[in-house]
Amino acid sequence: MPVDVRKLIFSEEELLDSFQSYTHDKKMVDAQSAAESIELTVVKGEGADQETLQAVVTFVSPNPKKPIQAELDEHQVIEALITTCKEQSIPLPKKGHKFIKQHKDGIAMCMGLSKADLCSAQPV
Questions:
Q1: Average pLDDT, whole number, for the chain?
Q2: Which of 10, 53, 55, 122 has its CA 20 to 30 A from that of 45?
């Protein structure tokens, strides 16, 4: 049977816009702060193949010695990307499973109807 898997790749600029909107909407940072950089970190889980992706977003700060930062775990990153897709009218499966992987300087969000579909298409 064919496997239905989609992959959306977000550039660093798109991530900055998405994370800035998300952190402002969730009141994680001051609404006037502009996102200026992102640091993506892969965190190893308990299992050999369990990894999660976290993002630290740095915002413009009036005091360079005290940067304004917001940490986003994998679920928050996915939520921010889904919100961006909704705002840009990019269709997403409602019941699909989603995971993210680092892709060059950005992030790839992969979606499939089942976990088995995603496992068969996991190389990003």
A1: 87
A2: 10
